[in-house]
Amino acid sequence: MSEINVTPMVDVMLVLMIIFMVSAPLLTVGVPIDLPQTSANPLNEEKEPLTITVNTKGEVFLQETPVAVEDLAPRLIAITNSGYEERIYVRGDRNVNYGQVMKVMGTLSGAGFRRVALVTELEQGS
């Protein structure tokens, strides 16, 4: 009589589950910032949007890659597959200079991108 030993399979599955539980929170947008809060409803998107982040030091990131403001428009034009109708999210730290965020948004608008949105956190207590 032959039997299947499932103990090694269970061990492997438990290890994989722990690895995925630890790594899943790290898969979110990688530039840590303190977003302003608002009571607006969240947008629902099917695919991952392009995200531009401005941190407290005024550094600009395209997804998780640092980029100069002057290089932002050419890089976006090169990577957008739906042209100027691509949805672009701008994440600005609540402590960053307002002028730096407006410089980024002006660069996007000047390049022809019209679907630019600001990202905030949902207000606590709402």
TrEMBL record:
It holds the Pfam family ExbD. It is found in: Cell membrane. It is a single-pass membrane protein; Single-pass type II membrane protein. The chain crosses the membrane at residues 12-33. Keywords: Cell cycle, Cell division, Cell inner membrane, Cell membrane, Membrane, Protein transport, Transmembrane, Transmembrane helix, Transport. PANTHER family: EXBD MEMBRANE COMPONENT OF PMF-DRIVEN MACROMOLECULE IMPORT SYSTEM, TOL-PAL SYSTEM PROTEIN TOLR. Belongs to the ExbD/TolR family. This is Biopolymer transport protein TolR.
